[in-house]
Amino acid sequence: MDTQNPSAPSRAQSASAANPTRTRHHGGGIVHENTRHTARFVVIGNHLVQHKELSLLAIGLACHIQSLPTGAGADIKSLTARFPEGPTRIAAALRELETHGYLRRERVRTPTGRIVTRTISCNQPGNRPGNQPGNQPGNRPKAPHREAADTGCPDRRPARPATTDRPSRPREPRPRKALPAVPQPDCKVPGLLRTAVDLLTDLRRHDSRLLLSTADTAHLAPGVAAWLERDVLPSAVRRALTADLPDEPLHRPAALLAHRLSDRLPPPAPLRAPATAPPPPVRHPLRNCDGCDRGFRAPEEQDHCRDCRASARTHA
Predict the structure, then answer these.
(1) Residue 35 lies in a domain
(2) Cα→Cα distances 241→16, 68, 198, 219, 263, Å
(3) What is the DSSP string of 261-282?
(4) First to last CA, the chain
(5) Which of 26, 164, 282, 292 has the most CB atoms within 10 Å of its CB?
(6) Cα distance between residue 211 and residue 209, in whole Å
(7) Which of 79, 111, 127 is the last residue before a domain boundary?
(8) Helices 214-229 and 253-263 sit at what angle, rounded to 10 degrees?
(9) What dihedral angle (degrees, nearest 10) is formed by the CA atoms of 304, 305, 306, 310?
């Protein structure tokens, strides 16, 4: 009776001892199987993932944005291209995160003068790095280097602004050089100007370099109308504007056309004397037929009407 079985375990092993990665639990519910991360991970606070006012889409979007490397695209277009949700739901989730302080969007000016939107992700709302003690200039701890992860979103990394003491001034656009003057018609008839506009708009069909803007067309139309007013056919105007164009690219096609309209303007059409009106038809006096006494008009040498003359020829 005092014989012991050396192969039997001394006591039953607990579930946590048999599987150290499984958390002890009682009854139903979730069971965690956790493995320690050593690379490619991000720390997310429970205040975010268990937030009672944020939607599930907003929580998931915040986790995704916090996992992105600095400079990755986090705008609505980039996130819509990455996830199946549409732009309306993505925009609503971003507004939720802005309302609760997990996201800020600021418009900044680059050194070139361009206005861009910068998205700032906050892993702890209300605790900006500049407001924490010990983060004064010169005492801020260095941020750990994070390797870029393959997130599937387009990389829209903005250019790093140059360090300068003066704010950059935007470049002023160069003033547009005025077009040369064009001839003006003596009478601006609406139909004539409409024909001129149609002719200028059709020039791009003959040469794609002659694509004119609305402002350029309005400037050139009176010059074309002056040609049409001088009895020049539209086809002749078109040939004068498009013939012998240079082979190199046309940087200012409207200026070239304005020069041709002025330089090649034909003289006014010669005045034509009005044609002489034909003489009025001869109106013979009214007289009576000697045969039937019927009234008719005829020269004085005819005494009979047409019917009596035809009857006389028949009986002759």
Answers:
(1) no
(2) 91, 58, 14, 15, 11
(3) HHHTPPPPPPP-PPPPPPPPPP
(4) 176
(5) 292
(6) 6
(7) 127
(8) 20
(9) -40
Three-state helix/strand/coil letters over 51-116: CCCCCHHHHHHHHHHHHCCCCCCCCHHHHHHHCCCCHHHHHHHHHHHHHCCCEEEEEEECCCCCEE
Rounded to an integer, the average pLDDT of 85-102 is: 91
Q: How far apart are CA 105 and CA 17, in angstroms?
A: 49
Distance, in Å, from the CA atom of 56 to the CA atom of 96, rounded to the nearest integer, reads: 11
206: in domain: yes
Q: Residue 287: which of 276, 273, 302 has the closest Cα?
A: 302
Count the domains in the chain: 2
Assigned domain for 89 exists: yes
Q: In this structure, is residue 301 part of a structural domain?
A: no
Whether the predicted pLDDT of 17 surpasses 90: no
Nearest to 93 by CA among 106, 108, 84, 103: 103
Range of the domain at 51: 46-127
pLDDT band at 292 (very low <50, low <70, confident <90, very high): confident
Is 234's pLDDT higher than 90?
A: yes
18 has pLDDT over 50: no
pLDDT, greater one: 208 or 155: 208
Q: 68 or 3, which is more confident? A: 68
Residue ending a domain, among 81, 103, 127, is: 127
At what angle are helices 214-229 and 190-201 packed, to 10 degrees? 120
How do residues 28-71 score in pLDDT, each as one tens digit?
788 989 899 888 888 989 999 999 999 999 999 999 999 999 88
